[in-house]
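In the present case, backbone shapes were mapped to integers, as reproduced here:
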Amino acid sequence: MNHPVARKTLWACLSIALVPAACAHTDNIPIHPYRIIHTYPHDPTAFTEGLFYEDGYFYESTGEFEGAGVRKVKAETGEVVQRRDTPAGYFGEGIIASNQRILQLSWQQGVGFIYDKATFKLIDQIRYPGEGWAMTRDADHIYMSDGTPVIRILDPQTFTQTGSISVTANGVPLQQINELEWVKGKIYANVWQTARIAEIDPKSGHVVGWIDMTKLVQAQTVGDPENDVLNGIAYDAGRDRLFVTGKRWKAVYEVRVGR
């Protein structure tokens, strides 16, 4: 999530956890190093809200009320090979694929749009309470964030909620959980307006690690640092590749976590 008029002061967390409710405490939680492996082009007009990787392509959802949509992007070149605009009047949020369908959330309208994965034709919609921010999935469940410390668990067939995960870092509820990605049994989560990615144990809800991307964030040339923030995580399980980007960033970065 990130709306230009919904500005907050959490940007201070870019380098250090100054706001406990948003960034939580980092005591006793390891901070993992990372290194950049490769850089891929990214549309600098794309206000990235959701991202996943599949078969050489990034599937990306873009936000704001004007220009929101879903797109299929060739990873190596950044070429948009398929696109569908979000229905007018809706602020686009995260996306996920399930059973040859793509589900895209909207921010505050409580409506999700279901597209045919092959054609991007709009075929249905769902409704949900509260806000919609982002999604990821494992083999059996979809996980949905809404900006609160609670990640919803959805049925991948019906998209109805079947459970939830309360996320904490050293016992403190983690606010502003945004874009999600399932990586080797953990949920990686952008924390809105911070430069940190939280590594969450889905069984306990505990943050078990941080990836601090302050240097990567500081290296970006963006028009609005308060809104054009780190957001977008994708994982290629077949080749064990982790990708990150941000809103209106010029690149997607393949990164390797650990030394």
Remarks:
- The two ends are 31 Å apart (CA to CA).
- The domain at 25-257 is CATH 2.120.10.30 (Neuraminidase).
- Residues 4-25 have pLDDT under 50 and may be disordered.
